[in-house]
């Protein structure tokens, strides 16, 4: 007896590969499978709404007329690494990693929130802690960051402390990462942390759809307006594909289904954006890097 | 005051049985509840221990990576309540680091990150003193005496190094509502069982008590009514049944003895009356004989004064009547007499026939004598004639009288039976006494005479009277004559 015939094996494998992207299940592999587009998602928005993600993905597929896979990971870094390594094609990233890896990435579109491609970082404390007015009262307390690669959830508070002449590494008695903005709100709400840094957009969205969660927190400080987490593409994405993705995003606000999805996201639409939107973040990176 | 001891068995036995049933039910229920309590506690402890082990294993990586949020999420998911068994929910979960400071807790406000065990006070304060400074090597259960909580402490060990400990605090009271629920259910089942058992056992207890009650009732009736007839006595092969049988026998014996006593009393009285009447008759007969002789002498030799003759004749008739009466009282057996023969019976029937015919009474004879008996014929004729005449007089109009005769084994047995009204109980006792008569006619000496003769002949006389059948029986021995 010999080995099973090779053609049979190949054929069944192809069928599997063809079916998998449609289900949105295929894990990222080294092999660039079929002609699907891979979009990485990070907790810059409420990425734990599975049914919404599925509808959004189908919208992408309809617009791009090709299979689309959403790729989600436990933290920003993994998604950035995948993008930089070319294992995914696009990603909705935070401005901080975008700026750091600007050389390898292209800005595809920037979401419009409250009409502008800008957002803020919020400093939140438990609602009951009436005495806390800012970072000053949090010295020596427990602080929750969202992700070390997050602008609003890590970079900005670090920068703010440094700007105030403090050493952010020693300012708090204990810090921890919750790996998503939503969890920062929860950690502060239940009292696990005495304060936390959170994406202002996420906090406002949570206040709209999960008011009980945000009710346990109070915003004590808001950062200056910074560039909203952008949609980026890997630098070597074929121009046609890049344009298609950008066109789809920019046209979202003029498409009925797109408008409905934007409503769920709490966004007004997408703008082309320019890299200088993120100069504020770049300055903060520079300031932190010098230290 | 009436105590339980004085209570009737009718109630006492059922009440005792009820008591036993209720007591058993309670004992079983309590035993089950105690077992349930132990089971529940053991179940709770094993659940807590296994949760502690799982947490200790799961928390190793977050501890090593210093991933506080992951550890918190693990605690949160472990805390998720089981709605069916809320008592299984840990009230507080605290992860301690190697320095025994709070790494993370399920109640961050009360046990904030980084706080020492003793600082928080509260339920963990009691735990602080009990924890081994070296840290536990194995899982342990602490139950502080004063606290409302007990703790399951599991070590967090990676590669033999103690990273920290997980303490799960359970309320000692948390499972009380659930236990109460179980207890209520057990109580309901017990009540249900009792609802079935009590009527059944009540019924059986009443059945058990009944023969005793019957016996007691029979005993109460016996002194006034010494007859076993009509008594409702327990039957059966058990002790009480046997007691009933013995009791019946005893009552029978008692009745026999009472009858015997009464018979003796009657015959003694009759004997006394006999002696008395014999003495009186003798005393009367002596002067009577003289007076009659005097009258006869005067009538034969007197001057024939008509007034005197008339007066003496009156006296003579009166005295003669006295003599006849006295003679009837004084029965004497004449030793010299002929034997009693079958022909005597025929004579008797002829003698009675006139009277019987007048009342339309039929006389039947059962049995006859095969040979003559060595008994004085005159006396026997007198006995039977008296009895037959009595019977004919007592028989119903157009009724019948039956004469039974049998001679065997040296004993003559005669019975005279009539279908008239029976003799009342009150009269029975005095039946054989002189002048005791139930009728308006006659002087009432007939049965007295019969009795005297039968006694003289060494026999016995008895009477049975029931409605529709009154029988006189005479037994006279003749073998030794």
Task: Break the fold down into its secondary structure elements and pairings.
The complex is a heterodimer of chains A (291) and B (481).
Chain A: H1 6-23, E1 37-41, H2 50-64, E2 68-72, H3 76-84, E3 90-92, H4 95-100, E4 105-112, E5 118-119, E6 121-126, E7 142-145, H5 151-163, H6 168-171, E8 174-177, H7 181-190, E9 195-199, H8 200-209, H9 211-215, E10 217-222, E11 226-227, E12 231-234, H10 239-250, H11 256-265, E13 269-271, H12 279-290
Parallel strand pairs in A: 1-2, 1-3, 7-8, 7-9
Antiparallel strand pairs in A: 3-12, 4-12, 4-13, 5-11, 6-9, 6-10
Helix pairs in contact in A: 2-11, 5-12
Chain B: H1 9-58, H2 60-64, H3 68-79, E1 92-97, E2 102-105, H4 122-128, E3 140-142, E4 149-158, E5 161-171, H5 176-221, H6 239-301, H7 306-329, E6 339-340, H8 342-359, E7 362-366, E8 373-376, H9 377-394, E9 400-408, E10 411-418, H10 425-428, H11 446-456, E11 460-466, E12 469-477
Parallel strand pairs in B: 7-9
Antiparallel strand pairs in B: 1-2, 1-5, 3-4, 4-5, 6-8, 9-10, 10-12, 11-12
Helix pairs in contact in B: 1-5, 6-7, 8-9, 9-11
Specify the CATH homologous superfamily of the largest domain in chain A: Periplasmic binding protein-like II
Indicate the proportion of strand residues of chain B.
15-25%
CATH topology of the largest domain in chain B: Beta-Lactamase
CATH class of the largest domain in chain B: Alpha Beta
Shape of chain A: globular
Total tally of structural domains of chain B:
3
Q: What average pLDDT do the residues of chain B reach?
A: 82
Report the major sheet of chain B: 5 strands, antiparallel
Give the % helix of chain A.
40-55%
Number of helices of chain A: 12
């Amino acid at each position: 007896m010999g080995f099973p015939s090779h053609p049979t094996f190949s054929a069944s494998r192809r069928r599997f590969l063809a079916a998998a992207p449609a289900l949105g299940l295929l894990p990222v592999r080294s092999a660039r499978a079929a002609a699907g587009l891979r979009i990485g998602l990070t907790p810059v928005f409420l990425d734990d709404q599975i049914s919404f993600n599925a509808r959004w993905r189908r919208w992408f597929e309809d617009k791009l007329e090709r299979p689309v896979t959403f790729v989600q990971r436990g933290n920003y870094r993994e998604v950035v690494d995948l993008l930089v390594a070319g294992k995914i094609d696009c990603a909705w990233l935070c401005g901080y990693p975008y700026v750091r890896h600007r050389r390898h990435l292209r800005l595809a579109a920037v979401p419009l929130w409250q009409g502008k491609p800008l957002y803020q970082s919020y400093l939140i404390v438990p609602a009951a802690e009436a005495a806390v007015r800012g970072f000053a009262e949090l010295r020596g307390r427990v602080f929750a960051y969202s992700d070390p690669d997050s602008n609003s959830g890590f970079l900005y508070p670090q920068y703010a402390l440094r700007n105030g002449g403090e050493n952010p590494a020693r300012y708090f008695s204990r810090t921890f990462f919750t790996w998503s903005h939503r969890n920062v709100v929860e950690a502060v709400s239940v009292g696990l942390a005495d304060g936390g840094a959170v994406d202002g957009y996420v906090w406002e969205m949570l206040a709209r759809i999960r008011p009980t969660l945000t009710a346990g927190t109070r915003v004590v400080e808001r950062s200056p307006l910074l560039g909203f987490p952008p949609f980026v593409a890997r630098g070597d994405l074929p121009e046609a594909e890049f344009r298609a993705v950008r066109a789809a995003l920019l046209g979202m606000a003029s498409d009925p289904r797109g408008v409905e999805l934007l409503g769920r996201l709490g966004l007004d639409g997408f703008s082309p954006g320019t890299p200088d939107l993120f100069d504020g973040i770049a300055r903060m990176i520079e300031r932190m890097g010098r230290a | 005051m009436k105590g339980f001891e004085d209570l009737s068995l009718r109630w006492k036995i059922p009440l005792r049985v009820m008591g036993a049933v209720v007591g058993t039910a309670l004992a079983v229920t309590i035993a089950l509840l105690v077992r349930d309590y132990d089971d529940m506690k053991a179940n709770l402890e094993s659940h807590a221990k296994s949760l502690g082990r799982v947490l200790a294993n799961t928390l190793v990586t977050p501890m090593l990576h210093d991933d506080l949020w992951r550890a918190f999420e693990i605690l949160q998911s472990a805390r998720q309540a089981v709605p069916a068994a809320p008592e299984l929910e840990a009230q507080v979960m605290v992860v301690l680091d190697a320095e025994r400071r709070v790494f993370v807790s399920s109640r961050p406000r009360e046990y904030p990150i980084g706080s020492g065990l003793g600082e928080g006070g509260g339920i963990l304060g009691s735990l602080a003193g009990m924890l081994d400074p070296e840290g536990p090597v194995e899982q342990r259960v602490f139950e502080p005496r004063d606290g409302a909580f007990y703790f399951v402490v599991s070590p967090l060990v990676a590669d033999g190094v103690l990273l920290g400990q997980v303490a799960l605090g359970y309320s000692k009271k948390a499972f009380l509502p659930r236990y109460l629920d179980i207890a209520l259910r057990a109580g309901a089942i017990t009540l249900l069982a009792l609802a079935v058992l009590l009527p059944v056992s009540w019924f059986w207890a009443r059945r058990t008590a009944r023969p005793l009650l019957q016996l007691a009732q029979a005993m109460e009736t016996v002194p006034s009514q010494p007859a076993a007839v009509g008594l409702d006595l327990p039957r059966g092969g058990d002790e009480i049944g046997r007691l009933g049988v013995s009791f019946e026998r005893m009552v029978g014996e008692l009745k026999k003895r009472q009858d015997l006593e009464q018979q003796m009393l009657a015959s003694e009285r009759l004997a006394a009356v006999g002696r008395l009447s014999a003495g009186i008759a003798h005393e009367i007969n002596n002067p009577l004989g003289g007076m009659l002789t005097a009258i006869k002498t005067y009538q034969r030799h007197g001057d024939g004064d008509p007034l005197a003759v008339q007066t003496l004749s009156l006296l003579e008739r009166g005295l003669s009547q006295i003599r006849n009466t006295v003679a009837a009282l004084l029965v004497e057996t004449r030793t010299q007499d002929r034997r009693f023969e079958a022909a005597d019976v025929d004579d008797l029937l002829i003698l009675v026939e006139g009277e019987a015919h007048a009342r339309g009474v039929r006389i039947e004879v059962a049995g006859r004598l095969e040979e003559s008996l060595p008994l004085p014929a005159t006396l026997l004729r007198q006995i039977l004639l008296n009895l037959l005449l009595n019977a004919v007089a007592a028989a119903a109009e157009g009724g019948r009288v039956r004469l039974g005769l049998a001679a065997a084994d040296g004993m003559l047995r005669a019975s005279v039976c009539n279908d008239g009204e029976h003799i009342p109980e009150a009269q029975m006792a005095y039946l054989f006494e002189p002048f005791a008569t139930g009728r308006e006619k006659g002087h009432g000496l007939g049965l007295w005479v019969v009795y005297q003769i039968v006694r003289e002949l060494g026999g016995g006389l008895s009477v049975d009277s029931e409605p529709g059948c009154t029988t006189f029986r005479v037994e006279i021995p003749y073998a030794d004559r």
